[in-house]
Write a structure and sequence with these properties.
The complex is a heterodimer of chains A (464) and B (484). In chain A, 75% of the residues lie in helices and 1% in strands. Chain A has 464 residues and is mainly α. In chain B, strands 1-2 form a two-stranded antiparallel ribbon. In chain B, 75% of the residues lie in helices and 3% in strands. Chain B is mainly alpha-helical. The chains are: A mainly alpha (464), B mainly alpha (484). Chain B: Residues 123-412 form the NADH:quinone oxidoreductase/Mrp antiporter transmembrane domain. Chain B: It holds the Pfam family Proton_antipo_M.
């Protein structure tokens, strides 16, 4: 549990670095903290699974893999922040520190062994996100998004807490292992447990924006500064799914017959709502918001199946999705800023990419690979993500949901390709955009990893 | 190793082409494609006409799931490998007079396309096949959508979404079949392991449709053809040649490779439906072709009609039907590439593809007339040309399976002659028009493309056995598996 301690202490240090006159040190310091934490996270990779903090937290290869994905995403996103959150009026030290603190929440969510820790983790992550969403203080939409997120989020947290209380009432414990033995020893448990589980799930599904609890997503994603949209759509989602997976596979796999149909319904709804609404978006950023809903649907699909393939599928899918999303938002940030300078208004519509293939072949290529990966076209990591998810579903034999998912993947291609078409086939204005070396490096790294896992998925699969 | 090189050479040549300057790209691409052709000829010379897989290679790929990077060539793939290797250099050569912007990307995409096609035709692992099947779509999409005509964005997008949609169903079927297999290390995705599965009739029915939709969209078979005429018309001619000459064969090949041996019971139930759809495509495509004025569109519809006959022949599950489809794929690829090239020659000189505006070209162009005539007659399936052998075998196959459908399919001979002769007559004969006033005969590089094609027309027409004998053992072996 070194990462939690490191992030908390070093995060405080970063906060105090804000007293320095020069703000230039903040970004390197944050990156350094993240690199150290990442190393610490994987340092005891080969250790046996173990409990920490008086049995409140759990650590094994799976939690380390999820924490790794979260930390890598955070590292890449932080590297893209230069020039986006450290302008004159902002207080970048706070934002960097909050980002680091939010990761503590994410890691606790991933490694909880006790439902109370789950609650603590969710709250640390959510409160940080509320603040970061509203960090563009003079922007009305950013403020609106933060308030909306806070109100809806608190409501969901309340339901979640209620669910935990009911579970405690039914089983007498918050401990995952105790819950598991309760489920296994009581073939017909009390209704209270079912209601508690459902309410807990609803709260968690809200956090990962599954339909019908997704209505906050587009506005919040759209209003938040793009850096933090990327942060939300990768880190919150990965941590949220890790938490749900651990809950369902760890404690409630015995009650599969109870919850699978509910989850199946939500999955289908999420797939439909995310994909079909995404088709009608003119704003790339809003499209990405709906796409994040649809990807939540695919991850839920694998959870619904809960077969031997599901764990690998969820880990792989989360990584592939995070990488592609970071690339996409990275390109949007730099291109949107440039068009903003030209026309005095930062634009996030598809047409900002017009003519990108001619102006900046590299950015256009990065965007294309990321869109192909999100759409699940072969030779990218996204394809294998979908492949493993589909495999897990076929193994369980839920063919009818699979057909919905397949149809929705075809719909997905439609809206992802709008960006590719804009980049290569439409005429744009303006000159080549100057991309800082460092920024370029991050985009190249995400693209290469995406393609690499597209060719050799085996390196990751079966690792955890 | 030779087979792996077939995939790797165009890939490497493509990367090199991508990195070179625009003005030397086409020469480099031609060299790459020529090396590939030499390699294919070596394979052709060493190929034994037995039913066995030859030149196989296999590397572990996704070991934990029993998926390997494996390929090989058997009697069913040999002709398509040859076709791809033979046509690609000619397609590259056909562009020599026409400057394309961003040439290095353009030629690199053609070579990437070739690599993916080779992968499709040689893969012996189902998921590897799928990977190449979809990967082939990306270069051709960009070729058509970036360098195409006015309406290209919408048209090619439809093509892309349509085909991916179809292949997703195939992916589901493949994953399902994969979970039915058992081997020492769990499941395996070797295609030959799929052949050994004996699923019940209902499951086979579902899998049949999953495969059928994927391949029917690719070929295309009626009523999944609506993407095809527009895409062929709007694409730049080299992309059209790749689409019509080679890519459409991926669908027919897929049916022979997957549908016939894996779901025989599904075919028993649904085979006739598939033949009926194919035969509708033949008649429907031909009738529309007769009414076309745009030459490229006309050939597009004729291609739709021809592939309908191939599909009908394959679904008839007879030796002559499948053999006919294999030889006809080769013949059709050669003819259609030649015809599209001739249309491009006429278009580049007159700036029109409308046959009403053409005419009188023959008077100054003896060479063009002769080549056009030979290719046209090959497409009409005149005896002694390449089209005849395939069409005869295909019709015999359909006839053996169902007399009435055979009779309706037979109208392709008459209808085909009508639209092809109409095309030839309207464009080449008659009075000169304002567009054809100063029409120059073929240049050297244009002849260099057409001569090999014409040689093949006669070679296949006069001595088809040099191709049929390669495929026969593999085809009869495959059909024996069905009729167990």
């Amino acid at each position: 549990m070194l990462p939690i301690i490191l992030l908390s202490i070093l995060g405080l240090l970063v906060l105090f670095l804000g007293f320095q006159k020069s703000k230039n040190i903040l970004l390197p310091a944050t990156l350094l903290v993240l690199v150290i934490t990442l190393i610490a996270n994987f340092a005891n990779w080969n250790d046996a699974p173990s409990l920490y903090f008086k049995g409140m937290l759990f650590e094994n290869k799976l939690t380390m893999a999820f924490s790794g994905i979260v930390l890598i995403s955070a590292l890449l996103i932080s590297a893209l922040t230069r020039g986006f959150i450290d302008d004159e009026a902002a207080q970048p030290a706070e934002y960097y520190a909050i980002m680091l603190f939010s990761l503590v929440g994410a890691i606790i969510m991933i490694g909880y062994e006790n439902l109370l820790m789950l609650f603590v983790g969710v709250e640390i992550l959510s409160v940080s996100m509320y603040v970061l969403t509203g960090s563009d203080k003079r922007n009305l939409r950013s403020n609106e998004a933060a308030l909306k997120y806070l109100l809806m989020g608190s409501f969901a947290t309340g339901i979640m807490l209620f669910g935990m209380a009911l579970l405690y009432g039914a089983t007498g414990s918050f401990n995952l292992t105790a819950l598991k033995s309760y489920v296994l020893t009581n073939p017909s448990p009390s209704v209270m447990m079912y209601v508690g589980l459902l309410m807990l799930l609803i709260g968690m599904l809200f956090k990962v924006s599954a339909a019908p609890f997704h209505f906050w997503t587009p506005d919040v994603y759209d209003g938040a500064p793009t850096v933090f949209t990327a942060f939300m759509s990768t880190i919150v989602k990965t941590a949220g799914f890790a938490a749900i997976y651990r809950l369902l596979s760890g404690s409630f796999s015995g009650a599969y017959t109870f919850w699978w149909s509910t989850l199946a319904g939500i999955t289908v709804l999420t797939l439909l709502a995310g994909n079909i609404t995404a088709v009608y978006q003119n704003s790339f950023k809003r499209m990405m918001a709906y796409s994040s809903i649809s990807h939540a649907g695919y991850l839920l699909l694998s959870l619904t199946a809960l077969s031997s393939q599901s764990q690998d599928a969820i880990v792989f899918y989360s990584l592939a999705y995070s990488l592609a999303t970071i690339s996409a938002f990275g390109v949007l940030m730099i291109v949107g800023k440039e068009t903003g300078v030209r026309s005095n208004e930062v634009s996030e519509n598809f047409n900002v990419f017009n003519g990108l293939g001619k102006k900046n072949p590299l950015l256009a290529f990065v965007l294309t690979v990321s869109m192909l990966s999100l759409a699940g076209i072969p030779l990218t990591a996204g394809f294998w993500g979908k492949f493993f998810v589909f495999s897990s579903v076929v193994e369980r034999g839920l063919t009818w949901i699979l057909i919905v998912a397949v149809l929705m993947s075809a719909v997905g291609i439609y809206y992802y390709f709008k960006a590719v078409i804009a980049a290569y086939m439409r005429e744009g204005e303006g000159n080549a955009i100057k991309v800082p070396q460092f920024y370029r490096l991050v985009l190249i790294v995400t693209t290469i990893i995406t393609l690499f896992f597209g060719l050799l998925p085996d390196l990751l699969k079966g690792l955890v | 190793m030779l087979t792996l090189s077939l995939i790797l050479i165009p890939l490497i040549a493509g990367v090199i082409t991508l990195l070179t300057k625009n003005n030397s790209a086409k020469q480099l691409a031609l060299v790459g494609a020529a090396i590939e052709l030499v390699l294919a000829v070596v394979i052709y010379a060493q190929f034994q006409s037995t039913a066995a897989q030859q030149f196989s290679f296999s590397y572990p790929w996704i070991q934990s799931a029993g998926i390997s990077f494996a390929g090989g060539i058997d009697g069913i793939s040999i002709l398509l490998v040859m076709l791809t290797a033979f046509l690609t250099p000619l397609i590259v050569l056909s562009t020599f007079r026409q400057p394309y912007k961003n040439a290095s990307t353009f030629y690199a995409l053609i070579l990437f396309m070739q690599a993916a096609l080779m992968g499709v035709f040689t893969a012996t692992d189902a998921f590897l096949f799928y990977l190449f099947f979809e990967a082939a779509l990306i270069p051709i999409y960009f070729l058509a959508a970036v360098w195409g005509g006015e309406d290209r964005i919408k048209v090619t997008f439809k093509f892309f979404v349509y085909t991916i949609f179809g292949s997703l169903f195939m992916l589901v079927a493949l994953v399902y079949l994969y979970y039915q297999t058992t081997s020492a290390q769990g499941h395996t995705s070797e295609i030959s392991a799929f052949y050994k599965l004996a699923l019940d009739a209902q499951k086979q029915g579902w899998i049949f449709w999953a495969f059928f939709i994927a391949f029917a969209i690719k070929m295309p078979v009626f009523p999944f053809h609506t993407w095809q005429p527009d895409t062929y018309t709007e694409s730049p001619t080299p992309a059209t040649m790749l689409l019509a000459g080679i890519m459409l064969k991926m669908g027919v090949y897929g049916v022979i490779r997957f549908v016939l041996p894996i779901v025989p019971l599904g075919l028993q139930t649904w085979g006739t439906t598939a033949i009926v759809l194919s035969v509708i495509g033949i008649v429907y495509g031909s009738i529309i072709a007769i009414q076309q004025r745009d030459m490229k569109r006309l050939i597009a519809y004729s291609s739709f009609a021809h592939v309908g006959l191939m599909s009908a022949g394959v679904f008839s599950q007879t030796l002559s039907g499948v053999q006919g489809a294999l030889i006809q794929m080769l013949a059709h690829g050669i003819n259609v590439v030649g015809l599209f090239f001739i249309i491009e020659i006429i278009f580049s000189r007159t700036k029109t593809r409308n046959i009403e505006q053409l005419g009188g070209i023959t008077q100054r162009t003896p060479h063009l007339t002769v080549y056009f005539m030979i290719l046209m007659l090959g497409s009409v399936a005149l005896p002694l040309t390449n089209g005849f052998v395939g069409e005869f075998l295909l019709l015999r196959g359909v006839y053996e399976s169902n007399i009435w459908l055979g009779a309706i399919a037979g109208t392709t001979i008459i209808l085909g002659a009508v639209y092809m002769l109409r095309l030839f007559q309207k464009s080449m004969f008659g009075a000169k028009s304002a567009f054809t006033e100063h029409f120059a005969d073929l240049s050297f590089s244009e002849r260099a493309v057409l001569v090999p094609l014409v040689i093949m027309v006669f070679w296949m027409g006069l001595y088809p056995n040099s191709f049929l004998k390669l495929t026969e053992p593999a085809v009869s072996n495959l059909l024996q598996m069905i009729h167990y």
